[in-house]
C-alpha cells in the first residue's frame, strides 16, 4: 500500500567518552554535544559512556525543551554510561546487565567496574511500537591476542537473546551502540544473524562521513594513533541497527558520521565519531512475516564459530580456576605449617624459634594475602566458567535446532 | 466457544534443598524426588535449589524417559539452582540474574554466591505458546528486622519487569518458585499487581494439602521449628502463578501440596513442601484483552509502598557506603603516617624508631587489610546504591504513569 503515510525518524548515536578526571576536555565536549543536539533536533538520541550522572543531569536540563523524555541506566560501580533522550514519550524501560564483563583486577581497563549492560526503552510513535536498545560491549584492547573475546561473544549472544525475547510485541526494533566489534567479526555476524537486524550503514541509500563508515578514525585528535596503525582508514565499531517485526518496512534514507571533529568546530564530540541515521518507516499491506529468528543459510556456521570461541574461553577459564585454587591451597598449607611451628615453639618443643619473629610474621601476612586473593580469584573464575558453560550450552541448543530444520 | 478442546497441564514445583555437604539426607531425597517424578508423570517440573550439577545430571538421566526435555540454569559461584524438566520440547531459554542479591560477606547466608536469577523456558504445547518462568528470591532470615527486604523487593520488581517484557508473544505465562514472601507481603502484591499473574492456590477449584497452602510447615522434620514459632500452621512462600495473555483462559482445577512427607514414605522431599497444580487451558472465542499491565485499582498504592521500602534501603545503603568510604580513608591515612615515620627513621631524622619493628609491621598490615576490605565494601555499596536508585526511579516512572491514567 504505497499510499500509507511514512514516519521519518532521525537518530543520533555516540560514545561520548565522558570519563570524569580522565577524558580530555570532557566538560567542553559535553556542552558541545548538548548544544548540537538542541540545535539539530533529532528524534532519538542514544548515548554511551556518559559515566557521570552530573553530566547526564546537565544534558537533561539543557535538552528539556527539545527532548522532553529521557532515561539514564544505572548499573555497576561507575554506572552503565547509557542514556536515551527522546522527543517522544518513553513508556517503559528495562536493563539487562551482561553476565560477563572482564575482570575486576584489570584496573587499567576498568570495564568490569562499568557493569556493561543493554538498556531497553519502549516508545509508541504515530501508533508504531518501537523497542529501542542502547548498549556498549567490552572493549578490545589487543586485536591480535584478544583476551576478552569470549566475554564479548557472551555479551553479543546475551544481547541477541535479550532483543529476541523482549521485542516480540514491537513493530520496529532499533539498536544503537558501541559494539566494540568490526563489521566482519563473528560477534556482529552472530548478533545480526540471530536477531535479523540490518546494518544502517550497509543499507543506507545515501552516506556521508568517514570512509567505510568508520567511527574510530586517525583524523580525530583524541584517538590513540598507535592502535589504529593497522587500519589507516580507521575502524567501524559504532552502529545503528534496525528491523521491522510486524507489518512495517524500515529503510535507511541517509547515514552520516562526523569526520574527526564536530560540525562547525575544531574539536570532536568524543574519541568516537557520532553516527546519525534517517530512517523511513512505512506500514506494509501484509505482515512482513517471521523476520524474527529467520535463520540465514550461514547462521549455523556463525553460531558454531562463536561457540568454538566461547569453548576456548571456557577451557582457559577452567585452567585459570584450577591455578588460582592450587595457589589458595598452597597458601593455606603454608599458613598451617607456620601455625604448627608457632604452636610447637610455644609448647617448648623446639629449643628455639628458628626464624626471626619479623620475617615469620611477614611470611604469615604474605601467605594470608595470597590466600585471600587466590580464593577471591577462584570464586570469580568459577562464576566465569559457569557463565561461559551456560552460553556454550545455549548455543549448542540453538545449533541443534538450526541443523534439525529442513 | 465451549466446544474448543481443553489442554490439561500438570505442574510440579519444589525447592529441593539440595546443598552438597550441608543438606540432610540429600542424596536419598534427590533419588526420592526423581522416583516420584518418574512415577507421577507430570507435564512440567520446576525445581529450585538443585545446587549441584551432578544432582541435576542424575535426575536428567533418571527422567530421560518421562521428561525428555530439560534445562539447567547456570549462574553465580554456586549456580542458580534452577532447573526445568518437561514432557514437551523446550524451544528457547533465557536467564536474568537479579542485580541485587545480598552481600558477599554474609557467608552464613550465602545467597550472594548463588547468583539468584529467573530462568525462562519457551515451549509450544498443542499450538499454545507457554512462557514458563522459574525463580528463587533472596531468603528472609529475620522477619521482624528484615535487612534483605529492599533486595528482595528489587528482585520482585525485576522479576515482574522481566516477565512483562519477555512474555508479550506468549499465550500463557506460568511462574513457579520459592519467592520467600508471604502471600500478603508487598513484594507478592507488587509482582501480581504489575504482571496480572493469578495465584493457583487462591484460584484452585479443589485444594488438598497443608492448611492455607503452607509450604514451610512444622510437620516437616527438616524445618527449623524456632523460625516457625510465630506461625503455628507454617508459611506459604512457594507458588505457582499463571495468566493467559491472548485468547486463552487458564483455570486451576486442582492444587495440592505435600504434607510434611513425600507420599508413601516417611521422609519429606525437602524442607519445603512441593506444590502441584493441574491447570486447564482453553481457547476463548475472543481475545482476553489487555490482561498484561492492566492496573488494578490498588496498584499505584502497592508500587508506592514498595518504592518507600526501596527508598529506605537506598538511604541505609548510602549511609553504609559513606561509613566504608570513611573507614578506607582513615586506613589510608594511617598507612601514609606510618610510611612517613618509616622514611623519617630511614633518613635518620628521628634519633631512634619509637615503635618496636614487629608492632609497627603488624599495624601496617592491619591498616592495609582494613584499606582493602573497606575499599571493596565501598565499591559494593556503590553498586547497591546504583541499583536501588535505578529501581526507585523506574517505580517512580510507573507510579506517575499510573496516576496520570484516567
UniProtKB/TrEMBL annotation, chains A, B:
UniProt entry tagged with the keyword 4Fe-4S: no
Cofactor(s) this protein requires: Mg(2+)
Any one GO cellular component localisation term in the record: membrane
Transmembrane parts of this sequence: 328-351, 357-380
Chloroplast is among the record's keywords: no
Alphabetized InterPro entries for the sequence: Endo/exonu/phosph_ase_sf, Endo/exonuclease/phosphatase, Sph/SMPD2-like
Catalytic activity: a sphingosylphosphocholine + H2O = a sphingoid base + phosphocholine + H(+); 1-hexadecanoyl-sn-glycero-3-phosphocholine + H2O = 1-hexadecanoyl-sn-glycerol + phosphocholine + H(+); 1-O-hexadecyl-sn-glycero-3-phosphocholine + H2O = 1-O-hexadecyl-sn-glycerol + phosphocholine + H(+); an N-(acyl)-sphingosylphosphocholine + H2O = an N-acyl-sphingoid base + phosphocholine + H(+)
Record pathway: Lipid metabolism; sphingolipid metabolism; Sphingolipid metabolism
GO terms for MF: metal ion binding; sphingomyelin phosphodiesterase activity
Membrane topology, as annotated: Multi-pass membrane protein
UniProt-annotated location(s): Membrane
Span of domain Endonuclease/exonuclease/phosphatase: 14-272
Pfam families, A to Z: Exo_endo_phos
Enzyme Commission identifier(s): 3.1.4.12
Gene Ontology biological-process entries: sphingolipid metabolic process
Swiss-Prot/TrEMBL keywords: Hydrolase, Lipid metabolism, Magnesium, Membrane, Metal-binding, Sphingolipid metabolism, Transmembrane, Transmembrane helix
Family classification: Belongs to the neutral sphingomyelinase family.
The name this protein goes by in its record: Sphingomyelin phosphodiesterase 2
Species the sequence originates in: Melospiza melodia (Song sparrow)
Name of the encoding gene: Smpd2
Amino acid at each position: 500500500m504505497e499510499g500509507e503515510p511514512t514516519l521519518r525518524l532521525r537518530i543520533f548515536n555516540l560514545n561520548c567518552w565522558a570519563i570524569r578526571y580522565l577524558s580530555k576536555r570532557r566538560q567542553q565536549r559535553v556542552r558541545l554535544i548538548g548544544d548540537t543536539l538542541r540545535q539539530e533536533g533529532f528524534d532519538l538520541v542514544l548515548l554511551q559512556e556518559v559515566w557521570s550522572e552530573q553530566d547526564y543531569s546537565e544534558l537533561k536540563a539543557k535538552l528539556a525543551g527539545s527532548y522532553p523524555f529521557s532515561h539514564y541506566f544505572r548499573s555497576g560501580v561507575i554506572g552503565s554510561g547509557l542514556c536515551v533522550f527522546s522527543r517522544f514519550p518513553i513508556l517503559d524501560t528495562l536493563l539487562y546487565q551482561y553476565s560477563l564483563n572482564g575482570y575486576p583486577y584489570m584496573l587499567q581497563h576498568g570495564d568490569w567496574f562499568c557493569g556493561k549492560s543493554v538498556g531497553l526503552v519502549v516508545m509508541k510513535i504515530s501508533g508504531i511500537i518501537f523497542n529501542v536498545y542502547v548498549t556498549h560491549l567490552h572493549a578490545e584492547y589487543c586485536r591480535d591476542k584478544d583476551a576478552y573475546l569470549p566475554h564479548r561473544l557472551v555479551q553479543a549472544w546475551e544481547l541477541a537473546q535479550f532483543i529476541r525475547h523482549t521485542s516480540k510485541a514491537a513493530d520496529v526494533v532499533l539498536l544503537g551502540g558501541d559494539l566494540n566489534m568490526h563489521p566482519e567479526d563473528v560477534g556482529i555476524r552472530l548478533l545480526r544473524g540471530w536477531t535479523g537486524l540490518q546494518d544502517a550503514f550497509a543499507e543506507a541509500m545515501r552516506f556521508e562521513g568517514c570512509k567505510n563508515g568508520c567511527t574510530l578514525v586517525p583524523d580525530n585528535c583524541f584517538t590513540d594513533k598507535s592502535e589504529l596503525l593497522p587500519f589507516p582508514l580507521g575502524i567501524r565499531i559504532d552502529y545503528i541497527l534496525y528491523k521491522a517485526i510486524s507489518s512495517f518496512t524500515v529503510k535507511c534514507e541517509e547515514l552520516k558520521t562526523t569526520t574527526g571533529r564536530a560540525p562547525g568546530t575544531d574539536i570532536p564530540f568524543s574519541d568516537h565519531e557520532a553516527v546519525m541515521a534517517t530512517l523511513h518507516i512505512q506500514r506494509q499491506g501484509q505482515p512482513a512475516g517471521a523476520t524474527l529468528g529467520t535463520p540465514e543459510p550461514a547462521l549455523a556456521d556463525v553460531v558454531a564459530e562463536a561457540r568454538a570461541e566461547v569453548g576456548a574461553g571456557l577451557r582457559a577459564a577452567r585452567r585459570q580456576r584450577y591455578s588460582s585454587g592450587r595457589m589458595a591451597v598452597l597458601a593455606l598449607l603454608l599458613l598451617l605449617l607456620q601455625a604448627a611451628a608457632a604452636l610447637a615453639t610455644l609448647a617448648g618443643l623446639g629449643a628455639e624459634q628458628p626464624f626471626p619473629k619479623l620475617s615469620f610474621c611477614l611470611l604469615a601476612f604474605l601467605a594470608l594475602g595470597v590466600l585471600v586473593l587466590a580464593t577471591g580469584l577462584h570464586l570469580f573464575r568459577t562464576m566465569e566458567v559457569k557463565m561461559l558453560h551456560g552460553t556454550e550450552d545455549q548455543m549448542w541448543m540453538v545449533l541443534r535446532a538450526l541443523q534439525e530444520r529442513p
